[in-house]
Amino acid sequence: MADFLDTTEIKEALQNNNQALAVDKIKKLLEMAANTPLNIGITGESGSGKSSFVNAFRGVDHRDDQAAPTGVVETTTEVRAYPHPSYPNVTLWDLPGIGTTRFPADQYLKHVGFERFDFFIIISDTRFRENDVKLAKEIQKMGKKFYFVRSKVDNDLQNAQRSQRNFDAEQTLALIRENCKEGLLKEGVQAPQVFLLSNFELRHHDFHRLHATLERELPEHKRDALLSAMPNMSLEIIEKKKEAFKSKIRYYAFVSAEFAAVPLPGLSVVVDVALIVGVVQQYKTGFALDGPSLQRLADSTGVPLKDLTSVLRSPLSLNTINNINPKTSTSVSSCCWLNGSRGRLEIYSIIWNLGSIDSLL
User: Fold this and answer.
1) Is 19 helix (H, G, I), strand (E, B) or coil?
2) Rounded distance, CA 116 to CA 174, Å?
3) 6 near 360, Cβ under 8 Å?
4) From CA 139, how far away is CA 81, in angstroms rounded?
């Protein structure tokens, strides 16, 4: 996550033997990384599944108090911000469908506050319509990125399975994807990027492709925020988060080493405990193992919270995370657990090496 951080000033401070300044720069650098804003505009026609996508991406059940309201009729009549429950610097904006406003596409963007968004996701549950195309062209003119999401493909697969003698799920999805692309190309949208999703089964279909595309095309300083907020639905995402957390350890270790050099009895221990508690809390939140995240998982899956927490032991004790109980492994895996021989989170077994100045240069 921290690859984009500019460490030039830290290196200069260390080379000038000004370690106090280096510590101050490190703190500011880590703060900046944790607070980089990411604003995602979600739009589309009424009933296309915008609000459901906002909830699914944030890991919030539609019955939750923090959920965007969903329904069979248009429930979004004004611009509404939905911050990520664990990372409030990441906000999904549920925008009213362009067909439900009195504004044409160019004025619609001004109406919703175009400038604030880092990119747009345009959602449709069937084919992309005239208003979607007009909006995409206006976004393109203004130099921002947009991505087409074809939602509710689980319904399409069910219908195809009922009606086709030789049903093939992958072939059906490929046909839907190509049909969407062809329609958009005919309407003049250049190089349309289309992703097939089910808001109720987000880990399936094209969500991983969408994440990879966003990660590739976002400015480097925004990728950290995106990865933090991504649902922990695959080993690939979990591994990326783990490596991102590991990349920051050297900075925390250096801060710890500096306080160890201060000749005040007990100060080093107090600082180290505070650092470790804070960093472990970051890990728990990042992997959705914190209390609020586990409660949301329990509410959405129907698995009692005590069953989820029974496989978790305190990372600050000598205990480790237990192996997964087969009875709860399906639910817990969506929270970030690693199955089988990797049923323990390596991140909690990281050794706090104080390291050397060379590791920062």
Assistant:
1) helix
2) 34
3) no
4) 20
Kindly state the tokens that stand for 118. Answer: 């880092």
Compute the radius of gyration of the chain from its Cα atoms: 23
Regarding the domain delimited by 38-229, which CATH topology (the fold level of the hierarchy) does it fall under? Rossmann fold (3.40.50)
Query: Residue 76 in contact with residue 43, Cβ under 8 Å?
Result: no
Alpha-carbon distances, residue 80 vs 39, 117, 121, 151 (angstroms): 12, 13, 15, 20
Helices (H), the chain: 8-15, 19-35, 50-58, 105-112, 130-141, 153-163, 169-186, 207-217, 220-229, 235-260, 267-286, 291-301, 305-309, 329-333
Q: Where in the chain is the domain with CATH 3.40.50.300?
A: 38-229
Quick one: the chain helix, strand, coil %, rounded to 5? 55, 10, 40
Q: Structure tokens of 327?
A: 């009875």
Q: pLDDT for 304-314, tens place per residue?
A: 888 877 766 55
Q: Report how far apart the first and last C-alpha atoms of the chain are (Å, whole number).
A: 18
In terms of phi and psi (left: phi > 0; alpha: psi -120 to 50; beta: otherwise), the region of 342 is alpha
Neighbours of 127 (CB within 10 A): 12
CA 153, CA 156: separation in Å to the nearest integer?
5
pLDDT digits (tens, 9 = 90+) for 147-197: 999 999 888 898 888 888 888 889 999 999 999 999 999 988 888 999 999
Enter the DSSP assignment of 112: H
pTM: 0.74
